[in-house]
Amino acid sequence: KGLFTYDPGFVSTAATESKITYIDGDAGVLLHRGYPIEQLAENSDYLETCFLLLHGELPTAEEKENFLSTIKNHTMVHEQLSHFFNGFRRDAHPMAVMCGVVGALSAFYHDSLDIHDPKHRMISAHRLIAKMPTLAAMVYKYSIGQPFMYPRNDLSYSENFLHMMFNTPCEDKKVSPVLAKAMDRIFLLHADHEQNASTSTVRLAGSTGANPFACIAAGIAALWGPAHGGANEAVLRMLAEIGDESNIDKFIAKAKDKDDPFRLMGFGHRVYKNFDPRAKVMKQTCDEVLAELGMEDDPMLKIAMKLEKIATEDEYFVKRGLYPNVDFYSGIILKAIGIPTEMFTVIFATGRTPGWIAHWNEMISSDYRIGRPRQLYTGHTRRDYPAK
Ligand code: CMC
Question: So which residues are the catalytic ones?
């Protein structure tokens, strides 16, 4: 009694059992419900992977069709919710707006407050997966002062997202299949990553009995930081700051300097110390997108590739197992597609939603206790309030 383990950063503490995702960081293995991420990226698609994460098995053809139509059924948001946007400054960071509007969904879907009914939990999951792209696109449209686009249910999940962002495809303008596939892959590669900071936040919030929309809003807040989902945005800012290949050595030196807080964004991972399997697939997609757009000679990309080469050969990075992670390449792809940098983490949040909700659902379906970490108190011993 009174004894507990001190583990800052939860480096060696398992807070839960889970059947959803397996990671072997040393071997660079990532499995969702047993299936390798490389095979899912190649043969599956984002919504099928969402079904897999939620239900534990790949859907049959009929189940998949039903799932797709259920998601399409939920793509619109309540018209009242669109008024929330007007309360934000147009230059607000999109993640700030997302924290607000996703949490606000709790005010619209009161049946989702009944978290102990599995049917209602699944409806909440469907609502969140379906509405995240709609809200994400609304955040963007609001920031540039354009009207919101209604979702189009004749399009695939990714095509519809690009349509709501960029008003395509219209009569004569179709979303490029390569770009739509790249978008789908970005969502899929972010779909889940076991007990990362944002998922653990969702679980912790959920362990109090909070409703799913509030829990996912908490996850979005945790994702925002540059050490987590904010890294994709930080990568692009870093590449812009480097500006020219001739400056790379200076930035590498800064990253190695222990007196300088600068880190190479998009490098390193708490769990992967050899390579990030998602980054491998992402790099391949990155090459496809840049070829499709004729951007192979993009100066920023050249800086990125040189940085990658130096960092993967330099002793400092090799010794510490710091390799390009998923966010290194996703930022480059998103920029090429035309997504503004401030929106990158919103895209990550959209992709991660099935993972968050699958973990929340797994927890609520099992015997769980409120999450309540302990601490090592290092403050004052007892002292008396000064006499007046
Ligand atoms: N650049 C330079 N040095 C680094 C970096 C980096 N990006 N990352 C870690 N290090 C060094 C760090 O200074 C430390 O050195 P030393 O042992 O000499 O003190 C050593 O590597 C271990 O670092 P750590 O901070 O103990 O590692 P961690 O597991 O706590 O942090 C991380 C992991 C991802 C937060 C960190 O690598 C980082 O800040 N990377 C940059 C941000 C980034 O790309 N984040 C996205 C992660 S992938 C997507 C996601 O999951 O959200």
Answer: 269, 327
